[in-house]
Design a protein that fits this description.
Number of helices of chain B: 11
Largest sheet of chain B: 2 strands, antiparallel
Order of helices and strands of chain A: EEEHEEHEHHHHEHEHEEHH
Oligomer: heterodimer
CATH class of chain A: Alpha Beta
Radius of gyration of chain A: 18 Å
Strand order of the largest sheet of chain B: 1-4
Strand content of chain B: under 5%
Distance between the termini of chain B: 58 Å
Largest sheet of chain A: 6 strands, mixed
Largest interface: A-B, 36 and 27 residues
Number of strands of chain A: 10
Structural class of chain A: alpha/beta
CATH topology of chain A: Rossmann fold
Strand content of chain A: 25-35%
Number of helices of chain A: 10
Shape of chain B: globular
């Protein structure tokens, strides 16, 4: 469904990605792991069109995404929940969700989607008319995910959804990810929480300094103990 | 009695300045650029009033509509021809571009029309007064207040209840995220310029209605007023701009009444003094941004 080949990204003099290749297939939950600065978020940004690729290809359902604008990429079916959630603080929960549905035009479907959202995120019904800035971190994360689902994406990309949340909320977010996966969403997840990610992901890529260090199924990576090596630097 | 007439005058000026400030802050909110060519939109609308009014026999309301439409078109064109080309570069590039557009439009007026002031034909409603409860009120003030309030209501409805309006507010909050939700950047920015042009056009009717003449540099005053108004009101919100504009108009009228005759020439200097005082005590403007910090939990 999504295939990234030999992707290079530079921020001025700093090379953030040095030849990333990865694949996400229909219905999979694929995770990108790695320490800070490994290039996980940059990879998502490049796919979402907010960061330009120097070279390499990104192909989604047969269409190249390189050089496309973020809005065009959303309309092709890729939604992002960025790190830090980026909900609109001065807009109400309702307005946030309404913008999430910007790319869709059917009003009756919108109402159905809102009902669906309330089922999945009951707290958002309670907060419907409050402004986004008054929500707690966990509520904001739920809103950010609900907002991106409003566009009915074929691929959902989540950038560190558990960042800065209390442990019980982290559990809640991960069980939400599992629920979404069960409902048939294809998900590309960026995380720092290795253990929990290995528990839910179908396949994992481990990034280190802009390259893919390891890849495989969680069970296999756990058995080899290879992840620990990368995190602790024994690999070198 | 004089106090009521003063009040009407102050409210009318406040409304006009609030409107001017709104036109400027709509673009600032999204591009974070102070559009220095904003005053030239008012100038252009002024010349439209002069040209269409003097050389056709159209009823004035159509002349006014043509002037507003002219400002909208010029605003949109400056966006497409100039600002869009440098938008992804730097903020400095945008700012310099807005200076260039401003100078270009001013010089175009100098070359094609005249450096001298041109008289604009206004309908009698601009110079008549009505008597309300024994007060003599200039129709011009009633018109300014009425039209401004109608514009405020219209804009509020637009920003609150339409998807485009919500998208504009979202873009002012976080443009990148707005685009990632599928809202086209060009649509948002063009809409902002069109709205800004429309507001400039309406402001021009009343700004030029005060002097009944237009010059190539007539836009400078409104630009400065709008800019200062947004600074004292708070650059972060539309409400801030409107409050700032209204406060500016109120204070300016008050200074005019309170200053002794000999100091009246220094009215602007006193105005700036007050603006500085406001900024010393409320550096973020009269209206503070709400909820910029996210709660942790």
């Amino acid at each position: 469904m999504l295939s990234v080949e030999n992707l290079h990204v530079r921020y001025g003099a700093i090379t953030a990605l040095r030849g990333i290749s990865l694949e996400v297939r229909q219905g999979e939950l694929v995770a990108l792991l790695g320490v800070n600065g490994a290039g996980k978020s940059t990879t998502l940004s490049a796919i979402a069109g907010t960061v330009k690729a120097v070279s390499g290809s990104i192909v989604f359902q047969g269409k190249s995404l390189v050089g496309k604008s973020p809005e065009a990429i959303l309309r092709l079916g890729i939604a992002v929940v960025p790190e830090g959630r980026d909900i609109f603080a001065s807009l109400t929960v309702e307005e946030n969700l309404r913008l999430g549905a910007f790319s869709r035009h059917d009003r009756s479907e919108y109402r159905k989607d809102i009902q669906e959202t309330f089922k999945l995120f009951p707290i958002l019904q309670e907060r419907f008319h409050q402004s986004g800035g008054t929500l707690s971190g966990g509520e904001q994360q739920q809103l950010a995910i609900a907002r991106s689902l409003m566009a009915h994406p074929t691929l959902l990309m989540l950038d560190e959804p558990s960042l800065g949340l209390a442990p019980t909320l982290v559990t809640q977010i991960f069980s939400l990810i599992v629920t979404l996966r069960k409902r048939g969403s294809t998900i590309l997840l960026v995380e720092q929480n290795v253990q929990r990610t290995l528990d839910v992901a179908d396949r994992v890529y481990l990034l280190n300094t802009g390259k893919i260090e390891l890849q495989g199924e969680p069970a296999q990576l756990k058995a080899e103990g290879a992840i620990k090596d990368v995190y602790l630097g024994k690999n070198k | 009695m004089v106090i009521y007439e003063f009040l009407i005058n102050a409210i009318s000026l406040g409304c006009l300045y609030a409107l001017m400030a709104l036109g400027l802050v709509i673009i600032y909110g999204i591009l974070k650029m102070v559009n220095f060519a904003y005053g030239e939109l008012i100038m252009f609308a002024g010349y439209m009033l002069y040209l269409v009014g003097s050389f056709t026999n159209l009823p004035w309301i159509l002349v006014a509509l043509a002037a507003v439409l002219g400002a909208v078109i010029v605003s949109y064109l400056t966006e497409i021809v100039a600002f869009r080309q440098v938008r992804t570069k730097s903020l400095t590039a945008l700012l310099i571009t807005s200076f260039a557009v401003s100078t270009l439009l001013q010089n175009a007026a100098l070359l094609t029309i005249s450096p001298r002031a041109k008289a604009v034909i206004l309908p009698p409603i601009f110079s008549t007064t009505v008597s309300v409860f024994g007060l003599n009120i200039a129709m011009r003030h009633i018109l300014t207040i009425g039209v401004s309030i109608a514009m405020f209501i219209g804009l509020t409805l637009l920003f609150r209840y339409t998807v485009l309006g919500i998208a504009l507010r979202a873009a002012a909050d976080n443009f990148r995220m707005t685009r990632m939700l599928g809202v086209p950047a060009d649509l948002v920015i063009s809409s902002a310029f069109i709205l800004s042009g429309m507001i400039a056009g309406v402001c021009a009717l009343f700004w030029i209605g005060r002097t009944a003449s237009v010059t190539p540099t007539i836009g400078l005053g409104p630009l400065l007023i709008a800019f200062i108004a947004t600074v004292i009101g708070g650059m972060s919100s539309l409400l801030g701009a409107a409050v700032g504009g209204f406060a500016y108009g109120l204070i300016f009228t008050m200074i005019g009444v309170l200053l002794p005759q000999v100091l009246l020439d220094y009215r602007e200097a006193f105005m700036f003094l007050i603006v500085m005082l406001i900024l010393i005590f409320r550096p973020e403007g009269l209206v503070r941004a709400k909820h910029t910090q996210e709660r942790v939990g």
